[in-house]
UniProtKB/TrEMBL annotation:
Residues 55-71, 79-97 have a biased composition (Low complexity). This is DUF853 domain-containing protein. PANTHER family: SLR6007 PROTEIN, UNCHARACTERIZED PROTEIN YJGR-RELATED. Keywords: Coiled coil. The keyword Cytoplasm does not apply. Residues 126-633 form the Helicase HerA-like C-terminal domain. Residues 55-97, 589-609 are annotated as: Disordered. Residues 11-54, 543-570 form a coiled coil. The keyword Coiled coil applies. InterPro entries: HerA_C (IPR033186), P-loop_NTPase (IPR027417), T4SS_component (IPR051162).
Length: 636
């Protein structure tokens, strides 16, 4: 083709595409060579670390792959060119489940431009320290799951994440059921075994402590008391704690509505019992009829459950001052985030209350925090340990409330990580909201376990691993990881040896915890309980007033009855007297009538014999003489 001839656009485009593909192939080849060199270096460093950590005179243990002759190692794929770095790499570095291309895919998938948290290093037979597994800090508010059987390292994973978050200025909240998370407040202790492990995964380990605040539910245990009012806790969460059925749950909601409508503050359980007692009393039965179907029998069931609940010691968790969950968002003066540990060893026998109380705290954060959208780093990361307790026997309404909270709280800048034993402990609607997963080893001893294992494997993206086998072979401190990338897509599945926490991996001494609690600036605010006038006092006064009014009314009725009885008796006496007087008059009239016809001389004309003697003349003459003689009035 001469220079004067025009260039065919299609030919030019094809040549440009060919050049682009050639450049990409050369770049991929260079990356592959670098990955193979890094893998060889990592294997050599791991071998050196093992040799340094082994006792004198004891041979360093080697894997069967490391002991195998070079001829037994599968060759690299034919399409990949051989390189000196690849030929010099120890055989163990190439004996992992992933091919060099897949290793490079993992390295690329976990390389981010934004700030990240380090989870650990890729395992491919041995650790590959250049293949660091990370999670973007901004994706921590897209929620996550840390799962695995007991003893596989979930707590240490949680501790490591909490330490890094706090170091980057992100406050952390976590519940410490067994008390072994408290070591985050104390620098870790170095050992040869620890340093060998961290060196092999490329972790520059040094002991460090995080700024830690200790809390306790209602003051049970060590820490600043965290309390909630019954009104703030709400009927939905309380119904789950009490184990109420759907009918009783809706009835409890009506009781809360009645209390709100009548200005009855429900501060503690005694207030709620007072309302229920009032509604089932003679004074409150009329109110009960107006509550839309709340029966006295249902109110009685709820009342009995509340009494049992309180007798079990749960009444100390409810009261005032009510804890402001925004205290969990504080940072230290040096800019580090504060790790808030809810110490709950004292309520281990009340798992439903513990898990539901954590859900209450999360719901309060959702209600109080403003919308902020997607942030470069979250405002708070909330670790929900023993999450299976939250969902055990949960009603549909309760589960729906959790799903809604998890779905929407991301926009408030809060990330939620559920920590539990198997993913099946968490409802599928909740799992669908989670962006990152750290899956420690699973056990499959029963057919149900095997079924759960297969179900778990089916939820992962396609990878070069036989996950059903790998998940049972993971060592302590190892996990299968996939996170959400900056683009919102899942990263490649990576068998990861996780970083070691920089804090103490055993509990902080009690004396240090007591000193930290005593020095807390929150203790004066929340340490002393308050008992203000609430529903119990109001209803007691109302019932006392009603009792006094009833007593006064009863006394008035008794007096009126007595007065009426007295008047009745007086009337009967008067009637009897009148009857007797009438009878005497009738007898007198009868006798008078009977004797009125016995003489012709009128009774008025008749005189008695004495009157006749005194009226005679001779008697008059004698009397005149006597009188004159006595008084000397007679003439001499």
């Amino acid at each position: 083709m001469s220079a004067a001839e025009p260039v065919d656009p299609s030919v030019a485009a094809a040549e440009a595409e060919l050049a682009r593909l050639r450049a990409e192939a050369e770049a991929a080849e260079a990356q592959l060579k670098a990955a193979q060199a890094r893998a060889a270096l990592a294997a050599a460093e791991a071998a050196a670390a093992r040799a340094a950590a082994a006792p004198a005179g004891q041979a360093t243990s080697t894997s069967p792959e490391q002991a195998a002759p070079a001829a037994d190692v599968p060759p690299a794929p034919a399409e990949l060119p051989s390189t000196p770095a690849a030929e010099a790499a120890p055989q163990a570095a190439l004996a992992g489940p992933l091919s060099p291309e897949q290793v490079q895919t993992v390295i690329t998938g976990y390389t981010f431009a934004a700030e990240t948290l380090d989870l650990g290093a890729l395992m491919n037979g041995d650790a590959v320290p250049d293949a660091q597994i990370r999670i973007p800090l901004g994706m921590m508010n897209r929620h996550g799951l840390v799962a695995g059987a007991t003893g596989t390292g979930k707590t240490r994973t949680l501790q490591g994440l909490a330490e890094q978050l706090a170091a980057k200025g992100v406050p952390v909240f976590a519940a410490d059921i067994k008390g072994d998370l408290s070591g985050v407040a104390t620098p870790g202790e170095s050992s040869e075994k620890l340093l060998a492990r961290t060196m092999a995964i490329g972790q520059d380990w040094s002991p460090a402590a995080s700024v830690t605040e200790y809390y306790a539910l209602g003051g049970v245990g060590k820490g600043v008391p965290v309390r909630a009012t019954v009104s703030g806790f709400g009927p939905l969460l309380l119904s789950k704690v009490l184990g109420l059925n759907a009918t009783q749950e809706s009835s409890l909601g009506l009781v809360f509505h009645y209390a709100d409508a009548n200005g009855l503050a429900l501060v503690d359980l005694s207030d709620l019992r007072a309302v229920l007692t009032y509604l089932t009393s003679a004074e409150g039965k009329a109110e009960l009829k107006n509550l839309g179907g709340l029966s006295a029998a249902t109110a009685g069931v709820i009342l009995r459950e509340l009494i049992t609940f309180a007798d079990g010691g749960a009444d100390v968790f409810f009261g005032e001052p009510e804890f402001d969950v925004r205290e969990f968002l504080r940072t230290a003066p040096d800019g580090r985030g504060i790790v808030s540990l809810l110490e709950v060893p004292g309520v281990a026998d009340k798992p439903a209350l513990f898990s539901t109380f954590l859900m209450y705290l999360l719901a309060e954060l959702f209600e109080l925090l403003p919308e902020v959208g997607d942030l470069d780093k979250p405002k708070l990361v909330f670790f929900f340990d023993e999450a299976h307790l939250l969902f055990r026997d949960a009603s549909k309404d309760f589960t729906a409330a959790i799903v809604q909270t998890v779905r929407l709280i991301r926009s408030k800048g809060v990330g939620v990580f559920f920590v539990t034993q198997t993913p099946k402990d968490v409802p599928s609607d909740v799992l669908a909201q989670l962006g990152s997963r750290v899956q420690h080893a699973l056990r499959a001893f029963t057919p149900d376990d095997a079924k759960a294992l297969r179900a778990t494997v089916g939820t992962y993206p396609r990878s070069g691993y036989d996950l059903e086998r790998v998940l049972q072979e993971l060592g302590t401190g190892e996990a299968i990881v996939t996170v959400m990338s900056e683009k919102g897509a899942p990263t490649p599945v990576a068998w990861t040896r996780l970083r070691a926490p920089q804090g103490l991996m055993s509990p902080t001494p009690d004396a240090a915890i007591d000193a930290a609690v005593a020095a807390s600036p929150l203790l004066p605010k929340y340490g002393t309980p308050i008992d203000r006038e609430s529903a119990r006092e109001i209803l007691t006064a109302r019932m006392n007033a009603a009792n006094d009014a009833a007593a006064a009314q009863e006394a008035a009725l008794a007096k009126a009855k007595a007065d009426a009885e007295y008047a009745k008796q007086q009337a009967a006496i008067q009637k009897q007297a009148d009857k007797e007087a009438k009878a005497r008059q009738a007898e007198y009239d009868r006798l008078l009538k009977k004797t009125s016809g016995t003489t012709r001389t009128p009774r008025a004309a008749q005189k008695s014999p004495l009157e006749q003697i005194l009226g005679s003349k001779s008697t008059q003459t004698i009397l005149n003489g006597v009188i004159r003689g006595m008084f000397g009035t007679g003439r001499r």
